[in-house]
Design brief:
This protein has 4 helices and 11 strands. It is globular, with a radius of gyration of 19 Å.
Length: about 260
């Protein structure tokens, strides 16, 4: 089965970088699909430190669950599968791509006007696109400019795939910047992803900028209440998934430890 209508944005990879990018894209109103083949490497971490907002650290599997929930609540769709090929169909001024995805039910194709590659550490599907790749032992990195653009118009890369520091918060920040770059390149009106109190702009005689909104006291209280409820539900009990380590250390392709 294949999608017939092009997506605004396709994100390849559902780890920290991919899910962060998807959240920003979807919140900007872009029709966004995340294709992910397996568990994020960050889930091998026994306890995730150095992430803003978690002063005592956080369970790495819970953290990626939270990122998934956030991307979905923003409006991003997800597809489980491996992107095995990416074809460049469009032009410099009118980009279009076709991804071939290997799923549990067979191959399907997805078309999108723009693509963010965030699939550490797989870059094989990019080999025929014209992007600049650099091999370093068993790893392959994608060359990008300072804002995440590759040499192919409409094709971006984010996260560890671009050889940035191997830190969760760095991957998230890099992906956010790359996603905002894509939003601007697409011509989508975007000022700031900002929810302001009622009157913040209009009370000064200004229109509410694109991608911003003003909310009154009742709506603010509702969102704060919902935020507490969602977080309490996520943190209510121990995470059910087994801890991961390197797959070579255990007889499990994902490296899951017995608990």
């Amino acid at each position: 089965m294949s999608e017939t209508n092009p997506r605004d944005a396709l994100v390849v990879g559902g780890g920290v970088a991919g899910l962060t990018a998807a959240t920003f894209l979807a919140r900007a109103g872009l029709d966004t699909l995340v294709v992910n083949a397996g568990e994020s490497i960050v889930r091998r971490n026994a306890h995730l430190e150095n992430v803003p907002g978690f002063p005592a650290g956080v369970n790495s599997r819970l953290f990626t669950d939270l990122l998934t929930e956030q991307a979905e609540r923003a409006g991003a769709d997800r597809l489980t599968g491996l992107v095995i090929d990416l074809d460049v169909l469009g032009t410099e001024d009118d980009p279009l791509f076709r991804a071939t995805v290997e799923t549990g039910e067979g191959e399907q194709t997805v078309t999108a006007y723009r693509v963010i590659a965030a699939s550490w550490s797989d870059a094989s599907y990019l080999e025929d696109t014209g992007v600049e790749l650099r091999s370093a032992g068993s790893k392959t990195y994608v060359d990008v400019d300072d804002l995440g653009r590759t040499a192919v118009p409409g094709l971006y890369a984010a996260g560890r795939l671009t050889e940035i520091y191997h830190q969760t918060v760095v991957a998230a920040g890099d992906a956010a910047e790359t996603a905002i770059t894509l939003v601007h390149d697409s011509g989508t009106a975007f000022y700031n992803d900002w929810v302001a109190p009622e009157g913040y702009f209009t009370g000064r005689g200004r229109e509410v900028p694109p991608a911003c909104e003003e909310i009154d006291a009742d709506e603010r209280a509702r969102r704060e209440r919902e935020s507490r409820e969602v977080m309490q539900e996520f943190f209510d009990d121990d995470h059910p998934d087994p801890q991961r380590t390197h797959p070579s250390l255990v007889e499990d392709e994902l490296g899951r430890l017995d608990q």
